[in-house]
Amino acid sequence: MRLLEVRSASVAGIAAAMMLGAAATTVVAQQDYAPGVLPGVKHAGSGNIHVLGHIPLGGFFRVMDNEMEQELSRPYVYVAQSRDRQGFSIIDIKDVEHPKKIYSWVIDNPELHGGTGGMDGKYFKIKSKTGGAKYYYVQSLQFGGSGPDADLGAVVADVTGLPDTSKVKIVARIKHPESPGGFHNMFAYKHSDGRVLLFATATHPYALVYDMEKVLANPTDASKALIGQVPIPENESTRLGNSGYHDFQVFYDSKTRQDKFYGAGRGGYFLYDVSKPETPKLITSIVGASGITGGHTFTPVPNQDVVVTEAEYQFAPLRLFDLTPGITGKAQTVNRPIGAWTADWHDLSHNHEVKWPFVFVSGYEDGLQVFNLVDPKNPQTVGWYYTCECKHEGGFGGVPAWEGNSVMQGAFGIKVRDADGLITISDSNTGFWLFKMDGFTSWKGEDWGMPNVSSSQDWDRGPVVATGGAKLVP
Amino acid sequence: MMLRLSLLALLGARALGAQPGVLPNVKSGGSPNVRVVSHIPLGGFFKVGDVALEQDVRRPFAYVAQSLDQAGFVAIDLRVPEHATVLRRWRIERADQHQGLGGVTVRYFQSGGRTFLVLGTQFARGTLDADLAAIVFDVTGLPDTASIREVARIRAPDMPGGVRDLFTYKHSSGRPLLIAAVRGAQANVYDLDAVVGGQGAAALVGRVPIPASGAAAAGDDGYDGIFAGYDPAASQDKFYGAGRGGYFIYDISRVESPLLLTSVVGAAGVTRGGSIAPTPDGRYIVGSTGYQYSPLRLFDLGPGLAGKSQTISRPVGAWTADWHDAARAAEVRWPLAFVSSMEDGLQVINVVDPSNPVTVGWHFTCLCAHETGFDSAERPQGTSVVNGAIAVDVRNADGLIAVSDASTGFWLFRLDGFGGWRGADWSMPDVSRAQDWSRGAIAPKSLVP
Question: Which H/E stretch holds residue A401?
Fold first, then answer.
């Protein structure tokens, strides 16, 4: 901290600063490390990554995933919160160099609730019949079986009125009493048929598919909006207990004209055709790869031949697989990666966002990491910033202890705003971060000769138009 | 003229953008503290398996298993380590009619004052000699190669496919034992006195089971790697097995009735153990899994052995030479571990702090391009990282290090400052792969029969 003060000293204060610098030098000699840098703690980042803003949000494991709206006219980020802050916070990033927390929602009687609380969050937009649009944020929740709300999977907040936080209102609660324990992850998807769908994990071997307009029409009975379930193939692995999927994403494939579900979970990674979400069809899978008994996250590059996968255990790199043999029917399943990447093999990377040719990674202890996968056999790190500011292996120890000795701590969630390349990180310990990377000012698939496929949704036009097709969805 | 040619060669190399003698993208050379003593090519890609060094410096011989069309073994004379020479090549009869890897592992033992070599074999199920587990040779007469004599063949007809690993162990009861990782849910234990005495099936004196595992990826076999050592603190002969489901430690003081002591099961990324090597005190194990991107993991068995936890599921440390690759097995000579690290050749690590293993030396023996390794016995050349240094052994008397490289053959090394190993020098039990065949596992406290 003293060094920061020295760096920001005015010209008039140079002499004093020099004296302080001398004092700091003495401290360095005694401590054998630079002032402001903790021994054994990774610090700062590469020269091409710039911190724009940072907001602490409560300390160790009060923070989970984050979600960023894509429209520049709606500069809002949502951060899931846990422990004694079970719910979510809203960050106003209108001035990206001075982000502000403007709102927090916490479940009623948080002290009575067990479990992790807020975990994942997604926003979506629905055109109203009057021609306007409404914006919603869905917060996934996980509460323990013995306390209240164990059957509550998510709450839906109407956030249309932001930045007027008095207009934020919980408008629906999605419950799934058949599998208590809540939703761990979700994905909001504008289907090619025009529906806004929410895919949600549950503690049973299916992904739940909700029609969100129906959820809003039946705010206390989400069962009427449950329009499909994506199964997970049988597998002997017990790593995820009763749960099937850990995580999933859905993308439109303009070549095959299919809505494709990329699910990671028990046994590996599974690709389904969900063009008709009521009757999903398995296309191919990644099963039997060495070191993988369960998948965590499964993300394709825009043309959907190569995928980035996460396995969520220490020492496991992100593995890249070529799905082509599986998609073309030459192989029933794919089981050998073509490449891999890690920031530090001692650690573990968590979530990621593919913006070809870059992959933006929330790398737990390794903070924000960016790598280039233009050659998937040889991914290369191109930028990083350590957000965790933590000691190695001082991470999540499970609920209710929370503190433990795992590598699960630090950069938890990551999002990228396509319009201007803004990068957000939610760090489990240090809170919310905003970054820019030199030379990355926006992302569109066509700029790279690729379909416009990423986790960002074109809520107005739908995926067919967004990926180069002509059809406007209803 | 010579100078001109050399200059032209140098210029040519520079024009190609590579240093002379260094292949682009091929790891080469080593750390300055690891010195090559000698090197013998043994037939090229995947013709080489395991290696064993005799520990008695008066018997300066090494043995290397050979694979595929050269299925058998070679005996190597180390009387002058700088000029190691092949003494004898033995090939299985009708080699062209055998299918499978062939010779995979070698161990030696002593019985009745004679020295024997055991060659572990793998021939494909349903083919000639699929039931053959090992062949025993009397090598007492070396360096007189004419005296080498086959004395027994050990077969396991109920578990065809041969063995994945062998371990020869001087049990505290005084019996020399052969523990074989056969292709079933157990390790077979043979009394080697009975084997060389021609007692056939009666030589099978024990079976060490492998617990059932629910992991689909674990396959249907049992153990991949085995080790045995005497624990003076517990007065137990201990079996260490790596295989389906993880790592398992048994008390085999009575080999007829092994007792499970503890295990390493459920560790993330470990559905199958590849190799296992304990520290001399049995407190920690160094375990490999054998697959790409997986480091060697070090586990503290303390809570399991003390009964504080049923199984161990979290490593205390890990090490890799290069996370893109894989390591095969370690030979622990506390505080060092010598690692046969496949594409990364010989690697030496210091495990004095098991939570933070540190590389202290290396030499790249593979001289191969990344991901050009083994596929299968039917089509050996593939794209895996299974290539290069397959096995390592250390002669305790003088610190001589032998490496067998699947592609480049037999290597001898010395590590600066490592002139030999005795547990007592490190206040550790004298436990390593090396056996005291004359005095037994309990020596020097009490001499076995």
Answer: none
N-to-C CA span, chain B: 69
Chain A positions touching B217 (Cβ under 8 A) are 237, 288, 290, 292-293
* pLDDT value of residue A35: 64
- pLDDT for A39 equals 77
Mean pLDDT computed over every residue of chain A: 90
**Chain A neighbours among B 334-373 (CB < 8 Å)?**
none
pLDDT of res. A395: 96
What are B341's two structure tokens?
């690290």
Share of chain B above pLDDT 70, in %: 92
Mark residue B320 as left, alpha or beta (left: phi above 0; alpha: psi -120 to 50; beta: remaining).
Answer: beta
Surface-to-core class of residue A7, CB atoms within 10 Å of its CB (0-12 exposed, 13-18 middle, 19+ buried): exposed
pLDDT in tens, A101-119: 999 999 999 999 999 999 9
Report the C-alpha gap between B142 and B152 in whole angstroms.
18
Q: What is the dihedral of CA A84, A85, A86, A88, to 10 degrees?
A: -170
- pTM to 2 decimal places: 0.88
Chain-centre distance of CA A221, in angstroms? 27
Q: Residue B234, by phi and psi: left (phi above 0), alpha (psi -120 to 50) or beta?
A: alpha
Which of B224, B323, B325, B358 is the best mutation test for A, with the most CBs of A within 10 A? Answer: B323
Give the C-alpha distances (Å, rounded to integers) separating B322 from A360, A444, B225: 23, 36, 22
Q: Using alpha carbons, select from B228, B282, B6, B200 the residue that is nearest to residue B109.
A: B228
The answer to whether A103 and A118 have CB atoms below 8 angstroms apart is no
CA distance A95 to A110: 32
A43 neighbors A392 (Cβ within 8 angstroms): no
Cα angle vertex B92, ends B86, B98, to 5°?
130
Report the pLDDT averaged over residues B275-304. Answer: 97
Sign of CA dihedral B423, B425, B428, B429: positive
- Let me know: does A85 contact A104? Beta carbons within 8 Å: yes
Give the ipTM of the model, two decimals please: 0.84
For residue B199, give every residue at least 6 positions away whose Cβ sits within 8 Å of its Cβ, in sequence order, or none: B191
Q: Nearest CA to A59 among A446, A460, A464, A430?
A: A430
By C-alpha distance, the chain A residue nearest B319 is A346
Distance CA A404, CA A61 (A): 11
pLDDT tens readout for residues A309-329? 999 999 999 999 999 999 999
